[in-house]
Known about the structure:
Layout: H1 3-19, H2 25-39, H3 44-60, H4 65-82, H5 86-97
Helix pairs in contact: 1-4, 1-5, 2-3, 2-5
Amino acid sequence: MDAELMALASSAATTVVGMMATDGWESAKRAVAAVWRRRRPEEVETIEAELVETRTELLTNRQTEGELQIVWRTRLRSLLAADPELAGDLRELLAELGPLAPEAAQGSRVVRGTASDHATIYMAGGDVHVNNR
């Protein structure tokens, strides 16, 4: 699996698990179920039950958040490996849930840059101030 798809699965897992302890929980659950419904409708009930189980575990012990993210990252990577076209669905999920997610759950960004000859590239996840004199 290429790095972009791995990062996408990771971001989606981080966002969904992060939202499980917020008011956006129902939106996250619906969005994940919708992805499964489009690709594997026979698994939707199981996935919804597993989401509820994950949320219960998270609310019982917030220290498990990292472990639960790994579980969902693995599950989403497996789904992407079986059906790479699902990437578009996960991007839509992130676009829908990203603004609702707590800041800590908004996932990671993948930024790539290629420079050649004497080019300079500046990359950052926030503000950048460059003074070339």
